[in-house]
Specification:
This protein has one domain: Ribosome hibernation promotion factor-like (Double Stranded RNA Binding Domain, 2-Layer Sandwich). 42% of the residues lie in helices and 30% in strands. The chain has two helices and four strands, in the order βαβββα. It is globular, with a radius of gyration of 14 Å. The chain has 99 residues and is an alpha+beta fold. Helix 1 packs parallel to helix 2. It has a four-stranded mixed β-sheet, with helices on one face. The protein starts with a strand and ends with a helix. InterPro entries: RHF-like, RHF/RaiA.
Length: 99
Amino acid sequence: MTVNFQYVDIDVSDTLSDLTTEKLEKLANKFEFLISAQVYFKHDEKDHDSGKICNIELSLPGPRIFATSNEKNYEMAMSETINDLTRQLKKRKEVYKTH
């Protein structure tokens, strides 16, 4: 699975990229129909309590799956986003089983 990162208004973090890639690879092993992932890390200046945003868009057969979360730090945002994607992928896998 191909993973593309975009850091919007923040510095590029290799550790964050590696951690995200590792979690997405686990997801790809579980759901073999994944093609690629677009990962966006953003910072919202207006939100002082959280403001660390992670958006992930997964490309797979059929419509793309998208999830986003806004947390206190980027690791928490990334974990929450991947949890949301996992829930969506489980539903999608059930649809594939019926066909």
